[in-house]
Amino acid sequence: MAFDTLLVANRGEIAARVIRSAQSLGLRAVAVYTTADAKAPHVTLADEAVWIGEGPVGDSYLVGDKILQAAQQTGAGAIHPGYGFLSENSDFAQAVEGAGLTFVGPEPKAILSMGNKAEAKRLMIAAGVPCVPGYEGEDQSDAVLIEAAGKIGFPIMVKAAAGGGGRGMRLVHDSADLAEAITLARSEAENAFGSGELILEKAILEPRHVEIQVFADTHGNVIHLGERDCSVQRRHQKVVEEAPCPVMTPDLRARMGAAAVDAARAVDYRGAGTVEFLLDSSGAFYFLEMNTRLQVEHPVTELVTGLDLVAMQIAVAQGETLSLTQEDVTLTGHAIEVRLYAEDPANDYLPATGPIDLWQPATGPGVRVDAGVVTGQEVSPFYDPMLAKLIAYGPSREAARARLIKTVKESVLLGTVTNSAFLVDVLGQEAFARGEATTAFLDQAYPDGFPLTQASPANVALALALLLDADQKRTKQAAGYVSDDQMGWSSAALLPLHVPLMFGEEELTPRALAKPDGWTVWVGEAQFDVSFSGRANGHTRARINTQTVDVVSHVTRDTVQIAVGAERLSFRRLRPGAHDDAAAAGGRVTAPMPGLVVEVTAEAGQTVSKGDRLAVLEAMKMQHQITAAVDGTVIAVHVKAGQQLTAGDVMIEIEETE
């Protein structure tokens, strides 16, 4: 079991995080990467890196043979799968063991048992672990599922038996919607996990999602490391995680911990695992699933326990006994984590791609940033949109929350769209601050979705002043020596300069006039005097009238991106004679993001109504329904299933009904 070289079969922040722990233990770390990930930090951090493909996961990170070849090529004695990709693939774990290598994770048999929700639930019922009433039978016909749902009662959850992360999952409130939900869940499950098997569960509305971190060695020792509350979710994808749970009591922790340990023992577990429960308002809890791997949110457990879970995984994989007992586990302080995503919350949280022009993570006491990106990298459509995990620790929950808000504001990523403003807003919600968030929290807090970001007149003035200031510096360099006191000077009165800017789809028409110490900018009827000082590494201290603000910016010849507080704003200058083509409205259906066409239901000649499903596009591991924006007749279908699209590609054309 002993090994001195560890290959990390993953990418992004988790690959970097595992590599750091492995190297701290004196191990040699090997990374695998694709052409799309060539500039990723895990490649630079590793002692050696092996190329495994161009980009798509189906040709790279999901190909077990390529991972094994890389391990053999580099002399790796063990493989750490991280999370996602092959981490819960029992066939891969078996292949690793069969190749004489160590799999840093549970036995293949345990992965297989817990990887299928139906089998896992049957095992948990036999082990006496509380479970949600439902159907987990082998007969998968629609008729049997519909009949079982009627017996269970609505609302009901339709879930993929394999996999997780919210894919292949639908909440159904009414029997009339069940057949379509089964079809969609099965399709999504087949595409995501290669299995269309489904289970049904009685929907427990507005519970907390509480999970227990378990650890087991190969000598019969199993312990738990307390809980994490992961109730703040969107489409069953976790957004905020914290430890400990705000409503946890010592008695409830002991009972949930014991149930989690029983679950691990039921499958002869080895290594790190997480047993997830739904906790209702009465204190009753129900088994949800077991993740047979390290979780994305493991840092909050590390911060409150003082343990390195990756180091513990490696120790167990090398045959060592757990270094602590249940009585040794203590939870101190509070930790909260949020996930920084490349997504647009104001546009139904659609994943985003594009360049990372600037990435500057926050630093300071109690701050931890696990990032998988660097400045100059490109966010591709091939992978999960998570860019970094921002974590804060404090002596109390409120201290951790306040520190995390500051951390999100000070962690600046410019280039692609991110959810930073959304995260700060979530953390600032009163219900969250009071520790009252359930799985219904986001729907309740944002019933109409997250609002579109508006650019305040002051921020428009700031952005324009930064853009013109950069112009002025380029002109000064090209002109030779011009003293600073001559800048903006003229013997005749200058007229304000009109500089049209695009902010999203909105055209702005601010005016500006140079002064020796800065700029006067008019946005509508509002006037702003803007000056700058203290510039370094993209950071600028700006004075806007009587207010002083700190701004981080990235300026090119015609674009300016600014970060002020939690806001990330991007403006583009419109040159004379240039114009923007407005997005084709109504009848021209385009791909909202790069992705793979999974299904096309629209046909030429078909009559459709606004809201009808036309196609399904898969991007960044999620499926998105493409719907009609107008009533009309389909006159052309330009795509087919299996086709890879880029953002803006025309998919379908509809002749709108007059």
Report on this model:
This protein folds into 5 domains: 5-104, Rossmann fold; 133-202, Dna Ligase, domain 1 (2-Layer Sandwich), CATH 3.30.1490; 208-445, D-amino Acid Aminotransferase, Chain A, domain 1 (2-Layer Sandwich), CATH 3.30.470.20; 457-573, Glycoprotein, Type 4 Pilin (2-Layer Sandwich); 588-656, OB fold (Dihydrolipoamide Acetyltransferase, E2P). Strand 25 (501-503) and strand 26 form a beta hairpin. The model is unreliable at 579-585 (pLDDT under 50). The chain has 658 residues and is an alpha+beta fold. 26% of the residues lie in helices and 32% in strands. It has 16 helices and 41 strands. The strands form 9 sheets. It has a 10-stranded antiparallel beta sheet with strand order 24-27-28-29-30-31-32-33-25-26, covered by helices on one side. Strands 14-13-10-11-12-15-22-20 form an 8-stranded antiparallel beta sheet, with helices on both faces. The protein has a 5-stranded parallel beta sheet with strand order 3-2-1-4-5, with helices on both faces. Residues 2-447 form the Biotin carboxylation domain.
